Amino acid sequence: MRLVALTAFALLMFAANSLLCRMALHGGNVDAASFSLMRLASGAAMLMLIARSRTKDPRPSRGDWRSAFQLFLYAVPFSFAYLGLTTGTGALILFGAVQLTMLTAAWVGGERPSTIQWTGVVLALGGLVYLLLPGLTAPPWREASLMAVAGVAWGFYSLRGRSGGDPIARNAGNFLRTVPMALVVLLLWWPDLRVDGRGVALAVASGALASAIGYAAWYAALKHLTATHASVLQLNVPVIAAVLGLLLLEETLTWRLVLAASLVLGGVALAVLRRR
What we know:
There is one protein chain. By secondary structure, this protein is mostly helical. The chain has helices spanning about 1-25, 30-55, 65-80, 85-110, 115-130, 140-160, 165-190, 195-220, 225-235, 235-250, 255-275. The chain has 11 helices and no strands. The longest helix is centred in the C-terminal third of the chain and has 26 residues, at about 195-220. The two termini are about 25 Å apart.
C-alpha cells in the first residue's frame, strides 16, 4: 500500500506540474520566464531541505553543470510551451518525447529492438505527427516544438541521472545550478515581466511541491519498481493531466487528442513492455 500511495502521489505531482503552469500562464498571473525562475529556485530550496534532512553531511548538495543545463532546457521551454498548449496536449508531447528519447538512446547504446518494438515506436511517432498535423484542433507549432525540446532534454537528464549517488542531493545541486541560467532568461524578457501573488503561489507550488516533493516520492517508489514498470506507469501522466485540465480549467477534449494519445501511449507501452 505504501508503494501504491507513493507511486500515485508522484504521478499526480508530475501531472500537477502541467496543470499549475497552465493555470498560472493562462490566467495571466505570471510570465513564462518568471514562472521558470521561481519554479527552479523553490524546487532547489525544497530539495536541499530534503537532502539535508536525510544526511548529516554539511557539504553543499551534489550535481553537475551538464545535467543542470539539460534540466534548464527542460524547465524553460516547458513554461513557454504552455503559453499556447492545453494541459493534456502539453503533457502528451512531453512524455511522448521523453520515452522516445530514452528508447532511441537504448538503441544507440547497442540494444536492438524487435519487430514489435519497432511497431510501437512507429505508432508513437505516428501519433505525435498526427497530433501536430495542420488543422482546426492542431496545437500551435511553435509551442509544440518547445514542448518537444523539453521532452528530449528531460529524457537525456533522466538517462544521465541513472548514475550512482543520492538522487535527491544530486537533483538539489542541479536545480540550484539552473537558477543563474533562468535569471539570464528573466533579464532577456524583462519588458514582458508580470507577476502577482497568485502567480508566485502557483510557481512555488510547482517547484517546491509538484517538482521537489513529487520527485522525492518518485525516487522512493523507484526502489521497488523495475525500469519497465516505471516507464509504463509514467504513461498515465498525460491522461491524469488531461483529466485535471478538463475538470479545473474547463479545457476541451478533442478527438484528435484522444486518437493521438491512444497511438502515442499505446505505441510506447508496446515498445517498453517488449524490452528485455
